[in-house]
Each structure stands twice: as structure tokens, then as C-alpha cells.
Amino acid sequence: VGEMETKEKPKPTPDYLMQLMNDKKLMSSLPNFCGIFNHLERLLDEEISRVRKDMYNDTLNGSTDKRSAELPDAVGPIVQLQEKLYVPVKEYPDFNFVGRILGPRGLTAKQLEAETGCKIMVRGKGSMRDKKKEEQNRGKPNWEHLNEDLHVLITVEDAQNRAEIKLKRAVEEVNKLLVPAVSDAFLRLIHFLWPVILLLNSAE
Length: 204
Description:
transport, mainly alpha, mRNA 3'-UTR binding, Ribosomal Protein S8, Chain: A, domain 1, globular, BBP-like, three-stranded antiparallel beta sheet, disordered N terminus, translation regulation
């Protein structure tokens, strides 16, 4: 008897973790008729725990430094480069971009910083959780960014040739987080269950 083929689990990346969190949020907003989502919620929670644990272990084991080994030798003096990526809040007003960029307990941003060697900060209107404090700080020295539209500020310090590579990588990764996404697996699940949900809903 041939061995059963096992599908490799997705890699524990910040974007995958955020997709799982979005899936859980979307599932919680759907009517859970007859407890049809109970097992799915448990599986989602288990997968979220696995990814968080693996990401934490990867950081401790130094696997996030792999890209640093690919950088060329430094040439010239240390410079500081930065780039602003504006968040498409007008196009997607209901999407929680700040939560997706920062991640649970700031894990996504920290992981990206470790992987790219760049500092990643959310700035501008709506960047602070405490909206009252944000209004109080608006217009004060060192808080000028609150007058700008919501954006991600990416900064890096290194030799010019290395800094440009790091900044480019960080921009590519952050741009991925600025596109609302739900995992393909969850979309297939909803497509499969939707007739059942509609049937149960009409029976009420």
C-alpha cells in the first residue's frame, strides 16, 4: 500500500498569519447555524497558534537573518534612506490596514524589521489606537506626521549599496500588506457552504 501523500503546511509568514486572523474575523461575522463552524474555528485557532509559535522560534533561531547574508560588502559611508508608502484607506475604508501591518502584538512589523533590516512605522491620521490622544498630539512638535494621510514610513541605515537593497525588499513586503486579502482556502469554503447558509437562513 502506497504511503498517503501529505501536503506541506504553509510557511509561517506574517502575511499568512494575518490572512488567518482575517479568516477568523470573517467567520465570526457569519451566522453559525447549528454549530457548523465550530470545528473550522478550532482548526483556525490551532493553525494560528502553530504559525505564531513557528514565527517566534524562527526569530530566536536567527533564520530571519538569512537575507543579511546575501547582502554585498559595504561600500562607502553610512547613509539613511527612507520611503513612505501611503495606505489606500479611501479605496478600502472598512479594512483594518493598521492591524494587518502591525499584526498581533506588533508581531508582523517586528518580523518584517528582522527580515529586511529596516525600521517600519505606521504614521499619519489614524495611526494611533487612542484617537483622543491622537487629536491631543496633532499639531505638537514631533507629531507633525499626524497631519499627513495614513502611511508606512520605512527607514534604513547602512552603506548606500546595502541600504538600497534593504529598502527595496522592505517596500516589496509592505506593499503586499496594503492589498486586502482573504485566503483562497477560506473563499472556497464559503463558496461551498453558502447554499447551506442561505437555505438555513430562509427557513427561519
